[in-house]
Amino acid sequence: MRKPAIQVMTANRLTDGVVLYLARDDQWVEQLGDARFAKTDNAVEQLQAAADAAVQDRLVIGPYLFTVEAFDGGFRPISQREHIRALGPTVGTDMPAAASGV
Question: What global pTM score does this model have?
Fold first, then answer.
């Protein structure tokens, strides 16, 4: 028997673009481990409703669900994209910003 998919809601903070995850009490957090995980259709619908409200309140932009799997007592994203978003930039953050007009 196949295990049900475990879903997490992610978005970007509207003010600075930081990756966020929907947690308990409809709060947005920066760490995947603090996210609220949905295993049922009803739980997924609750995540979607909370994300829609946060967009309406202009807290986040571009919310969507992604699938995670249980791993070493926690959860990890299945897709490479979400793995990178959860861990942060793949290039140095100490590089100077590009000059405007280039």
Answer: 0.80
